[in-house]
Amino acid sequence: MVATLKRLLVGRPLKTRESQQARIGVLQGMALLTPDALSSVAYATDQMESVLAVLIAAGASQQYVSNVLGFSMLGTGLIIILAFLLYLAYRNIIRHYPLGGGAYAIGLNDLGRYWGLSAAATLIIGYTLTVAVSIAAGVDAIGPEIPWVSQHKLLCNILLTLFIMLLNLRGVGESATVLVPFTYAFIACIALVGGAAVVEAIRHPASVTLPTTAGMHAVTGMSLFLFLRMFASGCSALTGVEAVSNSVPVFRNPSTKRATLTLLSLIVTLSILFLIVSGVATLHGLQYNPNVPLINQEAHVVFGESPAGKVMTIVVSLATMCILVIAANTAFAGCPALWSSMARDGFMPRWMQHKGDRLVYSNGIVFLTIISLALTIVFKARVERLIPLYAVSVFYTFSVSQLGMLVRQVRYRQKNWLWPTIGTGFGFIMTAAACLVFCITRFLDGAWLVLVCVPLLVMMFSKIKAHYDQVKCELRYDFSQPFTSKGDSITIVPIASVNKASVQALRYAVDNFKHVIAVTVIANDSEEEMRRATEKIQADWDRLQSGVPLVVIHSQYRNVAKRLQRFVEFELHKYNPDNITVVIPQFITNRWWHKLLHNKTGGLLMAWLVLGKSVKVVSVPYRLSR
Length: 626
Hints:
The chain is mainly alpha-helical. The protein contains 26 helices and five strands. It has helices at 2-10, 19-22, 26-33, 35-39, 41-52, 62-96, 103-111, 113-142, 147-151, 153-169, 172-203, 213-217, 224-234, 243-246, 255-283, 294-303, 307-326, 328-345, 362-378, 383-412, 418-441, 443-475, 500-512, 527-544, 560-572, 601-613, and strands at residues 490-494, 516-522, 550-554, 580-588, 616-623. The longest helix has 35 residues, at 62-96. The radius of gyration is 33 Å and the shape is elongated.
């Protein structure tokens, strides 16, 4: 039944040779890997205006509001420039690291282990927060239009997270195909808002107020630090840009060319959408409202209050919700791929490399879901509480990738290297400044958690690597040593009684080992009962005529496992642990609740032998028919 349900939810297993068919092209790549970055325009301008809100007093004129919002347009322009600088950096990363890994790969190879692992740590934090932030923002976007969603926000977040997880478990190609309409619907809706805003401005020029240079100079309270804080908040529009470089192997061949084209398409589309959202807000003097996202306000303004206008507003809200929700898919595509790269290098558990039935890193997908749900529940799905953690993580990885490319360009000095190096250096300064501003201004809001978690994660990665290195060292065989037997050996078969399970284990031991002995522990409530039990098992043993000696042990304290352990300890004084084998008979029940009705003596003995004594253990199962 479990297998049938799995096939129904996940689909049929894919063969390894079908991996090329499961990969994606540019069109699907835009749907799979870019929603995180595209969706950020839905709240990036809100984040900038939330900083500028302190400059707008109650009753301020529309012209003054537009002058204040002019700074958000200036910040938007700088962020778009930074986006193209990031494109140049990540284009090189894709070319040099076609197996993926992004900032982690370039940090590890060009800057050193700490840089690579710290970038990986912040990427992991960023990806897990992507799931939590995106879905929470999506629920917030549709909440004003559907009251039930607002009343059950946390439940909606959990259900949507599980839905995205299930979609990704079905495979890269299938999830990308499902997400294509939602991604392009959002792009079309924002473009429609921009077009309607232009038409509205032409029809009613009096409703539009443009900021002026003199007016912006006259804004009171504006400082360089406040502008940097606004710029850093707006840089959340760039979150998710690195996902393409982390997931190069998911593209069809030539994968690097398709990944680069997808990245360029993302940057161009992102810049246009961000410019539309910020521009419409500035032209109409729309202010930050914590209860109504800016895109909803813009749709109300440009489409009006007519029935058709209300329908268009709901469509824009739904498209925004969808892109914000499926933005979580970027993390499900990028984070397991990153974990796989780290596992290949020995910094994450080996099982992170395992691909499931649908040729995706299913273990990583499930693990990411668990972490993201925990964050959603702890922070109660509140975007403003999650953003500070999110932004610091993202911009640290941006800084590492830019610094890594800067070092690589200076080190190798290939043809025409100077101007790209200057551009990379400028990009590094901007991303590092944004990261620093976030650390300072949002330290008490939760950014401190990232600064604490990153060193802890780096330590964990290092410990995992050290363990794998130690295991590899200890298991390495010295071929100079001759392959010889280590002398006398003994095989012990513990039995409870003469039954089918114990006889099957005994037969296996006799057929495969020499010097076999059986041992049983009698643990009854009285001396008379112990005597009768001893006589019975001895009589059954004599009837069996196995030729194997039976050792009968009485336990005055009625602890069977303990007495068996003491017997093995006694044998360890005479034999090397390498020369002792314990063959344990076990019967397997057909129903799960049957297991609750039997003691666990065999399992306890097996765990003690394997973990504590390094004795070889063989389990011989006997399955019950009913």
